[in-house]
Design a protein that fits this description.
The protein is mainly α. The chain is built from seven helices and two strands. The chain has a two-stranded antiparallel ribbon with strand order 1-2. The protein is elongated and about 55 Å long.
Length: about 170
């Protein structure tokens, strides 16, 4: 019998719990540490939430076929890579010299009234508040930690969805 920890369902459930923990810390840092999230931070949060939902749905539906598990894994990996791309953009903005940082733009709540394409373009161009580094842990800024998290979660999804699951044979 396959051990419980090696089951696709449990591995995807663990992925969902990790995403919930990441969101919990994001909310803690916003409301208790008073770190105001910039637009790129908000989009990274959206990617974490989407990834968590994919992990949770994959765990609840737990496909029995290898193709079904791989499909859920690919969906999770693509979502994690999108989040990683946002985190990379954020890190790039934070690495710019002060004289090359874009000016601060309007808040995301204001931009939400714009047409979607214009709002998305403005967010990904970044602004001054996205270039600020106001939190570090072990020398890395928050976007670096989210990048590490996205890469780790993509690897976790790949492991859960693509590993060979063979049942051991009974030996007497």
């Amino acid at each position: 019998m396959i051990s419980n920890f090696s089951s696709f369902r449990l591995q995807f459930f663990v992925g969902a719990l990790i995403c919930a923990g990441l969101m919990g810390y994001a909310l803690y840092s916003e409301f208790h540490l008073h770190l105001e999230p910039c637009p790129l931070c908000i989009f990274q949060r959206i990617a974490i939430i989407a990834l968590g939902v994919i992990f949770l749905l994959g765990a609840l539906l737990a496909p029995r076929s290898a193709g079904g598990r791989r499909a859920w894994a690919v969906l999770a990996i693509m979502t994690a890579l999108a989040g990683a791309a946002i985190a990379c953009r954020h890190l790039w903005l934070q690495s710019l010299p002060a004289d090359q940082v874009p000016a601060c733009g309007p808040p995301l709540s204001f931009m939400m009234n714009w047409p979607f394409e214009k709002m998305l373009t403005a967010v990904f161009k970044g602004s001054g508040e996205c270039a600020e580094v106001n939190w570090r842990f072990l020398g890395l800024a928050m976007p670096a930690w989210t990048l590490i998290s996205f890469v780790a979660l993509a690897a976790w999804a790949g492991f859960a969805g693509f590993r060979n699951r063979t049942l051991p044979t009974n030996t007497l």
